[in-house]
Amino acid sequence: MPYVTGEEARAATAPSDAAAGRGPGLLARLRDNDVWFSFTRSPITLVSAIVTLVLVLSALFAPLIAPHDPFDPATLSIMDSFYPPAWTGEGDPRFLLGTDDQGRDILSTILHGMRISLAVGFASVLFAMVLGVTLGLLAGYLGGVVDSVIMRVADVQLTFPAILIALLIDGVARGVAGPNSYQDIVFGVLVLSIGLSFWVQYARTVRGSVLVEKNKEYVLAARLIGLRPWTIMVKHVLPNVLGPVLVIATINLALAIITEATLSFLGVGVPPTQPSLGTLIRIGNDFLFSGEWWITIFPGITLAVLALAVNLLGDWLRDALNPKLR
Amino acid sequence: MTPTLSVRNLRVEIPTRRGVLTAIDDLSFDIAPGEVLGMVGESGAGKSITGSAIIGLLEPPGRVAGGEIRLAGERIDHLPPERMRHVRGRRIGMIFQDPLTSLNPLYRIGEQLVETILTHERLSGRAARDKAQRLLEEVGIPAAAERLSAYPHQFSGGMRQRVVIALALAADPQLVIADEPTTALDVSVQAQIIALLKRLCADRGASVMLITHDMGVIAETADRVCVLYAGRLAEIGPVRDVVKHPQHPYTEGLMAAIPSLAGDPDEKLAQIPGSMPRLGAIPPGCAFNPRCDFAFDRCRAERPDAYPAGATQAACFLHDATSAPPPEIAGRASEAGIRLVRAPAETGR
Amino acid sequence: MSITEAPSGLAAASTATPLVEVRGLRRVFDLSKPLLNRLIEGGGRVTLTAVDGVDFSIRRGETYALVGESGSGKSTIAKMAVGLLPPSAGSITIEGIDVWGEKSQDLQRRMRRRIQMIFQDPFASLNPRWRVGAIVEEPIKAFAMIPDPKDRAARVGELLSLVGLDPRDGSKFPHEFSGGQRQRIAIARALASEPHFIVCDEPTSALDVSVQAQVLNLLRELQERLGLTYLFISHNLAVVRHVATRVGVLYLGRLVEEAPARELFSDPKHPYTRMLLDAVPDIEMAGKERLAIAGEIPNPVNPPSGCHFHPRCPFVMPHCRTVAPPVFPRGDAGVRCHLFAEA
Question: Does the pLDDT of residue B170 top 80, yes or no?
């Protein structure tokens, strides 16, 4: 067989793509994507996604769609208190899910409360992710002392339950800021405390992936041309280790929401003037055994459904992104 | 004489959501008792899948969708799992590529050998252990008695592969399938392992199906060789003939592309343009036609059977008496050493 | 500056100062357990001498092949030559510049531009998340060779064509290509900085035979066209025979034989070289007289004393067990074996 040049070789295989110019269009590639395929084929995932979307959207547009404004004292009337849900005999059609001890519409408070829960949840997961991924990258790529220090701090932190850490930071912040200024920074503190209790997972996972990736030849090729370690970490290694991070983040979101709810339930979370789902559950808890069950049950159901839906989404994402299971 | 292994029209399919891929398409071959058949092909040609299909270890959703596989006359291709388990190990032994992962790192070598022996034979523990020791000695492991209590990680790569061979031969199988047994080993060890495998199988009268991409290993070890391309048979025949006088254009190109320790080092290596098509994109007609120097119209339209081509059989229309390649192509093919069924002079020029 | 011009003033392999000079190269790895473990479990430091005093030179335009099995140190030498791993002792000089010496940032950059590497694994050597065009463009950007993005894109297209790919392939991702094509992309990336010296670390070991031929021919063509110098690392002697001008055989970190390629294959001197050549299963199936193949490569952490090869050598003498042989010159070749000590 004769020696042929590269061009002839390429022409001989004649894939139709080369003639067309580019690969299949973006939309076609998305539709063809394995991940999308597994998404559309799994009914549980579809339902979870829809539920999550509905809840998130209603929380987002709460001020617009809530029938009442539960935080405006002017619209509240103590005469409206303790109405049961509208479909029971003694309910009032104005208040679909009933009212609490102060006359606030439960449905509206749930919508507004979900807003707070989701906001705190997202923010703390984001914070944990940024912190954890950065530390994991540094620990994995730089190794040596940096690695040891970061990992030992992580180890120590893991020995404390997340709630305890959150309580600790919260308490310290209260003490430092004093009762008045504390109100202003409470959200920041909440995000910080929940986020700080979660970063270790990200750091460990990312560190493990970085350890694998940094010995691969494409990283060596980047080192060869003299790129600085930070550039290599961010531009080359980071995109390849983010996959598992996404999965952890989704599952973490559910946990973050529940953690915030727990803190609020314990009374150390958001202030009662802007109740989250957890606060509502706490408020309702006092009345549970005197018969006004709706004040606690409905926020509780909402919280459970939200957490479950997000969790199931995270499960599906983990399986879909796992190359071994595909 | 009944061949040890007889494969007829084997078809292996892998259903995917994009459609059904045909990994092996209408493959037929025999292995005689005591013979070493080399199964050669590039990555994706289907040689490993053939081995897996024969021993019944196809990874789902892959399945044997057609044809038959007979071991010493008995059909084994759709046996219930329980019966296949008996066949596997007892009558067919398998050697995988990576000795590191073929042995369980948590168990001693002796335990693994004894387990295999006892699965297929009724022996006392003592007798099984003795047999294990004899096997280790046979494969050339020094101080076999002590080594029985060693763990896999305490052996070197070559030694581990010897143990794997011992495991495969423990139940005296009729057929041994070796999938790239030397690829992960150093050059100096490769030769030892190949020689060992050949000798042991010859001693026991076992047939060997040697799957590899290394033509050199085949040339030194096998009696006959089967060349696969895109899941189909390209050529099959005695090793000497396939290597020295290949009759299929793919085989011919392959042999010319392999650097050798003989021959002129300054000559550019002959290369085949393009690459083997992926399973989902096999062209119509002969799978090799886009890359073939001697392709003509019939090659693009129909799929060739395996035609007799001198000492070998080649799936190429150049060897079909009823086809009429254009004289120019026939001439070039002749020059390349392919002995056409009808010499160019006969095609009416 | 066109990529198709070879550095000026070149004939074929020039016999002037060698492009690459390696002197007394040594690399020791510390495999000891952490201090705490050593204190508790006992046991001392464990070191691995991967490269033990290696000397060789490569002339411009030449292809120097380093051959060896596992534990020979060839990959370690490759990494030290391109600046990825510092040596424990010795020096590597490329075009007169010491790769590991103190130098200004500017000189360091200029040196980096001259050296490139092609890796063994075509699947791991390209970042799976980057497009091919960006991968090939990266060295050009890193060395600020072409400021204008459009011109850069044009150069990337040129490079892809040079290695036999379509310039439009730049918008695809690596996983859309076969192993052989990825290796071509890797070659295009290596050429992007217009290097003079390329280290090829087993560039075709992971490829199929027919693809291997394409890539080897491509490397050869590029060498002729661009006046490149290669350090070619391989364990495959048949491949080496086709590409090398000069060959060095490594065993457990030492260079045991070095000779022009033709001579090494027609008249191998060192017993290990002879054993290696005999052991290669070859397609020619010549009924050659084979030396018995003895034993396996010993653990490099604890190599045999004296000449490392003595436990496996069919010609071993008492002297070999105690004294490590120096290199004995034989014309244009060198053998590290007591059998060749001239009286």
Answer: yes
| Whole-angstrom distance, CA of residue B11 vs CA of residue B66 | 5
Give me the pLDDT at residue A24, please: 45
Partner C contacted by B43 (CB < 8 A): yes
CA distance A51 to A53: 5
> Domain A56-325 in CATH: superfamily?
MetI-like (1.10.3720.10)
| Separation in Å, CA of A13 to nearest CA in chain B | 5
Which residue of chain C has the CA closest to B266?
Answer: C242
Contact call for C127 and A218, based on CB within 8 A: yes
- B35, pLDDT greater than 70: yes
* Residue C110 CB neighbour total at 10 angstroms: 14
B129 Cα to chain A: minimum distance (Å) = 38
A 10 A CB-CB count for A43 gives 8
Distance of CA A57 to the CA centre of its chain: 15
Identify the bridge partners of residue C250 per DSSP, sorted by sequence position: C255
User: How high is the pLDDT of residue B324?
Assistant: 78
pTM: predicted TM-score of the whole model, two decimal places: 0.83
Contact yes or no for C138 and A216 at CB 8 A: no
pLDDT number for residue A326: 38
Which range is least confidently modeled, A4-18, B247-261, C313-327, C328-342?
Answer: A4-18
Residue B115 has pLDDT above 50, yes or no: yes
Q: What is the pLDDT of residue C278?
A: 83
Angstrom distance (rounded) from CA A318 to CA A326: 11
How confident is the model over C102-129, as a mean pLDDT?
Answer: 90
Q: What interhelical angle do C149-162 and A6-13 show, nearest 10? A: 90
Any A CB within 8 A of C133 CB: no
Query: Which region among B60-74, C7-21, C159-173, C271-285 has the lowest average model confidence (pLDDT)?
Result: C7-21
- pLDDT at A26 (0 to 100): 54
Question: CA triplet B165, B170, B174: central angle to 5 degrees?
Answer: 90
Spans of all domains in chain C: 20-294
* Rounded distance between C-alpha atoms, residue C180 and residue C123, angstroms: 10
| Whether pLDDT at C6 is above 50 | no
Q: What is the DSSP string of B15-26?
A: EETTEEEEEEEE
Taking the domain B5-228, which CATH number applies? 3.40.50.300
- Contacts of residue C267 in chain B, CB cutoff 8 Å? none
Instruction: Give the domain ranges of chain A.
Output: 56-325
Quick check: B329 and B296 in contact, CB under 8 A? Answer: yes
Mean pLDDT for chain B?
A: 87
**Residue of chain B whose alpha carbon sits nearest to that of A15:** B281
Instruction: Please report, for residues A251, A257, B194, the alpha-carbon distance to residue A314 in angstroms, rounded to integers and kept in the order given.
Output: 5, 14, 50
- Is B158 part of the contact surface with chain C (CB cutoff 8 Å)? yes
Any idea which residue has 């199931």 for tokens? A312
With a cut of 50, say whether residue C59 has pLDDT above it: yes
ipTM reported for the complex, 2 dp: 0.85
Question: d(Cα A111, Cα A55) in Å, to the nearest integer?
Answer: 9
Upper half-sphere CA count for residue C151 (Cβ side, 13 Å): 9
Q: What angle do CA A102, A108, A112 make, to 5 degrees?
A: 105
Inter-chain residue contact B291 with A37, CB threshold 8 Å: no
Average confidence (pLDDT) over C119-137: 92
In chain B, residues under CATH classification 3.40.50.300 are: 5-228
Summarised one tens digit per residue, pLDDT across range A272-316 is 777 788 888 888 888 888 887 888 888 889 889 988 888 888 888
Residue from the list C69, C283, C296 with its beta carbon closest to the beta carbon of B258? C283
DSSP assignment, residue B223? Answer: S
Q: Does C212 touch chain A (CB under 8 A)?
A: no
CATH number for C20-294 (one of 3.40.50.2300, 3.40.50.510, 3.40.50.300, 3.40.605.10): it is: 3.40.50.300
